[in-house]
Write a structure and sequence with these properties.
By secondary structure, the protein is α+β, with helices and mostly antiparallel strands. It is built from eight helices and ten strands. The strands form two sheets. It has a seven-stranded mixed beta barrel with strand order 1-2-6-5-4-10-7. It has a two-stranded antiparallel sheet with strand order 8-9. It is elongated, with a radius of gyration of 33 Å. Bound molecules: zinc ion. The site of zinc ion has 6 residues, from loops.
């Protein structure tokens, strides 16, 4: 399952001389200090994000190795001249002074990237330095997505929890487990546009069902399934209500039956309930309920004779 996550660039690394050693492992040419620009990138962390997903610390550690040497691009365009930066070092950083929303120490994966100080990169470097190019996004694949409430595969047959909701005071979110691969990382001008992309695909994917069964829509699968169940229940209720009104109509007036049969399929629940009430009232007048309990003023004779053996 491919995952895309947001992060941020963190400005230049301080000790460039020390960094050069690590960079040389990836660069073809012998680079000098003046030729490279380095900066840090927050790749991902252990916080629950806006998709109600989080990486476990173990997954972050797995990603730490996978992101080594990965190239970064600008604005999600994947072409060779667009491959601007490369991660030459990764580090899992545990910030004990900061807690995530679950109360755990905040842990994040930091990547150190280098770029060549070429003329064509000058603008991008200036934008990173100035904090304009800040939002980053990563792509990776994980083996499993587990439900925080029941621990089963989210959206699978055993889990019916919906991310973002609370169950018995416990927030439901997805835990991303088992990093399989790390893909590109990139600078994104407006991260929110990714959601617009998802909505566009939704229209092309063969309706709502197609969307929730797709990779992008799987987040909504459990919610979709719950709605589908409710819709089925609603349909069945309407069907039963129509049958009941037809039955009552037949009891009231046999001649009504034919006409009623024709229009009842178009009636919604409110009209049906009103018609049901009218028929029931009419039937009540015609066949009042006969009570089987003795009335208020009647007394029941009992002399105990029946119980004599
Ligand atoms: Zn669950």
């Amino acid at each position: 399952m491919k995952i895309i996550k947001a992060g941020s660039a963190q400005g230049a690394a301080s000790d460039i001389a020390g960094e050069l050693e690590a960079i040389r492992a990836f660069a073809k040419a012998e680079l000098t200090e003046d030729e490279v620009y380095t900066f840090g990138v927050l790749l991902c962390d252990n916080e629950i994000d806006r998709d109600f997903e989080r990486f476990s610390e173990k997954t972050l550690e797995e990603l730490r190795e996978l992101f080594m040497g990965k190239t970064g691009i600008s604005d999600h365009r994947w072409s060779s001249d667009n491959q601007k930066a490369r991660i030459y070092r990764t580090e899992l950083i545990r910030d004990e002074t900061k807690k995530n929303s679950l109360g755990m120490p905040y842990v994040y994966l930091k990547g150190y990237a280098y770029m060549l100080r070429t003329e064509s990169n000058a603008d991008l470097i200036a934008e990173i330095e100035g904090g304009i190019k800040k939002e980053t996004s990563i792509g990776c694949a994980v083996a499993r997505i587990l439900c925080s409430v029941c621990g089963e595969d989210m959206g699978g047959s055993k889990c019916s929890h919906i991310r973002g909701r609370t169950y018995g005071g416990k927030l439901c979110y997805a835990e991303l487990v088992g990093a399989v691969d790390a893909y590109e990382w990139s600078f994104v001008a407006v991260p929110a546009q990714r959601n617009a992309g998802v909505m566009k695909k939704f229209a092309l994917h063969g309706g709502l069902k197609g969307f929730v069964e797709s990779d992008e829509g799987r987040y909504f699968y459990a919610e979709y399934r719950e709605l589908e169940k409710s819709a089925k229940l609603g349909k069945r209720y309407l069907q039963e209500l129509r049958k009941e009104v037809l039955r009552l109509g037949l009891l009231c007036d046999r001649e009504l039956h034919g006409a009623l049969r024709g229009v009842i399929g178009q009636m919604e629940d409110e009209e049906l309930l009103e018609l049901k009430r009218v028929f029931e009232e009419r039937l009540e007048d015609r066949f009042p309920l006969v009570t089987q309990l003795p009335g208020r003023d009647e007394t029941v004779a009992f002399d105990g004779g029946e119980y004599l053996v």
